Amino acid sequence: MSNDLLVLDQVRLDIPAGRDWRTLVENVSLTIAPGEAVGLVGESGSGKSMTARSVLRLAPPGARLSGRIEFDGTPVLDLGPRDLRALRTRRIAMIFQDPRAHINPVRSIGDFLTEAMVTHLSVPAREAHARAVRLLADVGIADGERRMRQHPHELSGGLLQRVMIASVLAVEPDLVLADEPTTALDVTTQSEVMAILDDLRRERGMAMLLITHDLELAAATCDRIAVMYAGRILEVQSAETLVQTPRHPYTTGLMVSRPSIDRVAHRLPVIAGRPVAAFEAGAGCAFQPRCTQAGPECLTGRPPLRELAGAHVACVRAEES
Amino acid sequence: MTEILVRADGLQKVFGKDMVAVDDVSFTVARGQSLAVVGESGSGKTTVARMLLGLETPTGGTISVCGRVRQGRAGSAERRRRAREIQIVFQDPYSSLDPLQHIGDVIETGLALHFPLTATERRTRALELLEAVGLTERHAVMLPRQLSGGQRQRVAIARAIAVEPKVLVLDEAVAALDVSIQAQILNLLADIRERTGISYVFISHDLAVVNQISDTAIVMAAGRVVERGPTAELLRTPQEDYTKALLAAVPRPGWKPRRRTPSPSGSPAGTP
Amino acid sequence: MKARLGPLGLATVLLLGVLAVVTACAPLLAPQDPNQPDLFNALAGSSGTHPLGGDALGRDVLSRLMFGARTTLLGPLFTIVLSTAAGTVLAVTAAWAGGRVDAVISRLLDVLFAIPGIVFALVTVAVLGPGMTGVVAGLAVAYTPYVARVVRSAALRERNLPYIAAAWVQGRSAVAICSRHLLPNLRPIIVAQSVSALGFAIIDVAAISFLGLGVQPPTADWGLMVKNGLDSAVRGQPMEAVSAGVLIALVVVAVNLLGDRLGRQEGDLR
After folding, report:
1. Residues near C150 by beta carbon (within 8 Å), at least 6 away in sequence
2. pTM > 0.90: yes or no
3. Does the distance separating the beta carbons of C172 and B113 come in below 8 Å?
4. A1 interface with B at CB cutoff 8 Å
5. pLDDT tens column, B137-188
6. Confidence band (pLDDT; 50, 70, 90) for C270?
7. Does A contact C via 3+ CB–CB distances below 8 Å?
8. Which domains does chain C have, with CATH numbers?
9. DSSP for residue C57
10. Residues in chain B within 8 Å Cβ distance of A222
11. CATH number of the domain at A6-106+151-313, out of 3.40.50.300, 3.40.50.720, 3.40.50.740, 1.10.10.60?
């Protein structure tokens, strides 16, 4: 337990909506070991992004964040502004879906890459420049000198996301939060960006929390996968066993409803209804209204995560499916 | 020999002076056929869709739909006639419906334009159409913002099939949807095709989706067709390197992301 | 549209509401005939029959303020109604047609925008002679780009949304698409923009009246009252100028606040 780099324990996030509160994340508990890659998979409204943001306390304004978040033994929710800033700049880095929205458009790639090194790590400017060029080479951008002089609008989305990854590497954080880092990219670019992220992360022993809607992408790049639905984790398993023996009916549903390039189904097996957010879910298991396995016992309270043959699953009927 | 509904011949589209978006693209769509146009961003696939609908004018080449060549600006009668031939469903379910128009009215407006129905008949028909896409009478009085993304996409499909077109263009129509909703919409599209014999032109970057929904496919890159053939064959035994690379990049069990061998410039082809 | 105006917004709506009632019912509410000179009341201070005293000719200031509200506010209102109508038509035409039509309309609007409203009104007044007609005609032209430029850019954004393309593909006519889809969706921004233009128009009309080129005496008008009141003020009776001036300022602030709130709500809705 104490070996874990990141511990989320009963994390809950509510945002104000008029006079009410809306729950987006409800009792999420998850751990990440140093160097481990964990995939957080879910559909819209599942709270996967908000969970990742909560780690850095990047919740929307006015939001109420509770529970316990511990990073390397430090309780994140108790940190003062100064320590929080240090945590964000030195220890945990975030990669976003849309790099264009997170890189200052009027400054050069070089400025963007060296700024963090110069201001936070007190690296001399000349050395920071040389290091930035090396980092660009690491992410597969060979003509770094030229790229350093360019501006974000001159680069494609895929290149920009690699610049983003290089900027993350520059501070060598212990944990990378990657929020749908390849969703906006083409498939071939996605493959490349994920490969780069994977390689460099392993080389440097960085842990990663990959937030994605793509179960197969997570399975291919992560050690463990947590499946989220309506603000809760429904299942956690090693990536390998999850794709072979999913324990939660929702996970199974996600896997079979996705079309495949190897076979054509006459009709795809579907999960009826639509995904809901935590605050929209009724009593009982949040997935119960869409679940084919649901029985009367699913209506009494949210099922907690429990261990089942090496997996953790939040379903009272998991043995039967 | 089945009837050819869409014939695109040597299509070309140049934006501005020299931005060639589509270059020498030809294909046909037969009655009841589902053709996928596959490509990554910048491949020109969406421009092809927009030219088929008359939303862009081709710089070169011809398009004929239902045996009639489409050219020049159309008068209102001609535009209504074309509307009965080909319709479209867009990618973004949030902006493809008028935020102020009630769902029932969305469907009825299309019906009123094309069929001599009384108000009651129109209403009944609109409800039938909503039911055909899995919505109910309850939804008819709602505004788009009261519906989820998947439901809005169902409305967009109902709006398109309301005018009973021969061909439906689906421009990344399931790309913005959640996985569980995507499957529902794909099944709905399969049902509609089975029931009505409509043809699809399915624009997509997603090979798995394309495999599920199309009979034949063309693969586009940088405005040109690089490979074409029956979808199953194309995905099982791709001939061109580009198609192979596309296939290799699709995550699936046992797949690992791969770095491409760095080209001399350090950037893969196609990225500036 | 559910209004969330806040206390300040509510106060402005209330103030403008009261003004509207007074303007409409001036003949019923005014204590005196606004144009009846009364030499005994000339430059008189506040009294029971004349709460705000009299002007240089002894006319009742309160009654003149009430009747003056009509010309002072109706003139700008007409101006804005005209310029909003013209501006919206131009903006939607430009956004819909695009290309050369858009270029011509946009350049025209730029040129108009470069000329101050007062200058325009002076020209039309020179042609049509002093009076409200000339002022309204001139200012209506001058304010057209103020509305049109904002509406055009909103219309351009809206026009490129897929729901417009879908309506086109369904075979709807351009006129139907513009009037049934574009305009309703642009309405909030049109309203917000024209209300804030109204504030400026009130100042312009008052200024022109102050110059003596707008409403002609003996008709009551706040701008004129400020001008005439200045002479009275020199002779020790500032009530007329001050009350008219304060009212102009109050109305302009209220209208601008309202426009600001409406504009912000438009932002919230998006």
Report:
1. C189, C193
2. no
3. yes
4. no
5. 999 999 999 999 999 999 999 999 999 999 999 999 999 899 999 999 999 9
6. very low
7. no
8. 52-269 (1.10.3720.10)
9. T
10. none
11. 3.40.50.300
